[in-house]
Amino acid sequence: MTGVSIADKTPGSHGESPLSGDGASTGRLGDRLFGGAAIGAGAVVVGLVTLIGVFLLSQAIPSLMKNEANFLTSTEWSVGGDHPRFGILRLLWVTVLSSLLALTIAVPIGIAVALFITNYAPKWLSKPAASTVDLLAAVPSIIFGLWGLRVFGPRTEGIQNFLREKAGWFPLFKETTVGSFTTIFLAGLVLAIMILPIITALSREVFAQTPTTHKEGALALGATKWEMIRTAVLPFGKPGVISAAMLGLGRALGETVAVMILISSLAQGTDFSFSFFDGGETFASKIALGAGEFDTPQKTGAYIAAGLVLFILTFIVNAIARIVIERRKAFTE
Amino acid sequence: MTAITNGLPRDRMLSEPRDLDLRGKSGSRALKNSVATAVMWAAFAIAVIPLVWILLTVAVKGGHLILDSTWWTNSQQGITARREGGGAVHAIQGTLIQGLVTALISVPIGVLTAVYLVEYGRGRFARIVSFMVDILTGVPSIVAGLFIYAVFITTFGFTRAGIFVCLSLTLLMIPVVVRSTEEMLKLVPNELREAAYALGVPKWKTIFSVVLPTAFSGIITGVLLGLARVMGETAPLLILGPYTKAIATDLFGGNMATLPTMINQDRDQAVTLPAYDRIWAAALTLILLILLLNLLGRLAGRFSKV
């Protein structure tokens, strides 16, 4: 359901790989055509990713050249006219802050749910429990947004006000111009729910692969169930959990519609604030909100530049996830 | 160690070693163990609450509208936010058409890529393809939409249309299809391939008439799950697929409604207006559609031969 699996990193059903390469090909026309089509499809995928990078870059550069503010450190965003001034600092902050909040909440819960499914749940419950959590991933993000705004959000007002009052001295919890519940904080909470299934699904897979001998060894030495998990399951699953968290982070960084619905926009020129209780836009929601403004190449280019930064950000996060998994594979084989 | 036999008849202990009383462990360790168990159960409860809450909200607020037959036969043409009535057939149709076209483009590419990775791919290029599929999995949907916009609308000067939405959704669907097909192809026993080769069947025919049919139901599962994912996608539609209240079936020109954009259109309406009920009904319709696809996908998985 998540489209991501670590099963593909493990060898085939009998431990050996399928017949290799062209040893099995007859070299006849049919084989050459079909083999060519398969390689072609692979090339299309490589080409698409490359094209995404190239096109975004080529269209972002002219706008970046005209930009009169520092793209990386400015908090302004006015992309039209002869003197465009735009920068991504605020977008970056809101994106990172909301995603990290989501991650901080979703990772511990995700690990616990994965452990529940693999080690604690009674047999009859374990499969339905896994499908139930997977089902959460099937809910479209716009419905998360709608539910967050109309149903869940108003119920978080209490805790948000509590934090504002009691912890307001701390820059992260400072009172801002946004008085209502439509803050970065709310977006972080809803994002946490949205990335929970992906973190759970991947952690579940690695926890289930813990060698039974490790687990039984721990139990035989007199460990309680929790001690067995702490000493056998968690260390074994650590790389998997890290990459699950990274993939979850990638999802959160790029989430668009739910965030767009949940966080209030700020008026031009509002002071920058570090607070969770501020409004603003993430990269993704800024682009979606700006869709009506894509009328000149210069304006579009500015949004594409923001999209490019988001692409690079998610690329790095996903690559880290991939590398962590690869190293684990090298280690366990 | 007396605690081990504590109060248990000896024969029972031997037959059911699970009933060992381990009270011999120190209090704090036992306590930690119980706390951990409680935390795991609580975490599961926390994970389930939002799902139940969302499903209930949508069902309660939108249920009465979709039970009305006009919901499935009428469009929103001529219906303003203050007026009751109208249906979602224009949006349902748009979502289905775009989903179908997306699947038609991405399934061949995805399945062939998976065939390449499992049956042909060795060495450097295969690793690059595999890595790129991972990267494509992580591409945010808004970036996919922005890319298609940058290519077709800014560079080639087309106007926004349904087909471009399909192309951007294709980018999101390909990696799902590749990954699930790849897993299924790996499950096909090597003996089947070897038997075909031994009979002198060429490699392409082996793949086409032995490997792919064996993995067929699994591939269908992957396709349906991928379809479920892209049908609920909204972000690229905001850039590429403007909403319209009328029925539109032309992918190559004009606006085209979909369920996500229908929700987005009226999401700011006041609670008292009839339009407010319609967004929940549209949400319910969308969830039902996606759940149906998920269900069909899992059902197809049941018939898997591998």
TrEMBL record, chain B:
Keyword list, A-Z: Cell membrane, Membrane, Phosphate transport, Transmembrane, Transmembrane helix, Transport
Any single biological process term in GO: phosphate ion transmembrane transport
Membrane topology value: Multi-pass membrane protein
Any Pfam family: BPD_transp_1
PANTHER family: PHOSPHATE TRANSPORT SYSTEM PERMEASE PROTEIN PSTA
Function: Part of the binding-protein-dependent transport system for phosphate; probably responsible for the translocation of the substrate across the membrane.
Tagged with keyword Transport: yes
UniProt main location, coarse: membrane
Domain of life: Bacteria
UniProt-recorded Gene Ontology molecular function terms: phosphate transmembrane transporter activity
Location(s), subcellular: Cell membrane
Database matches in SUPFAM superfamilies: MetI-like
Keyword set includes Membrane: yes
Entry's transmembrane regions: 35-56, 96-117, 129-152, 158-178, 207-228, 279-297
Annotated GO CC locations: plasma membrane
Family: Belongs to the binding-protein-dependent transport system permease family. CysTW subfamily.
Identification of the protein by name: Phosphate transport system permease protein PstA
Record-annotated ABC transmembrane type-1 domain positions: 92-297
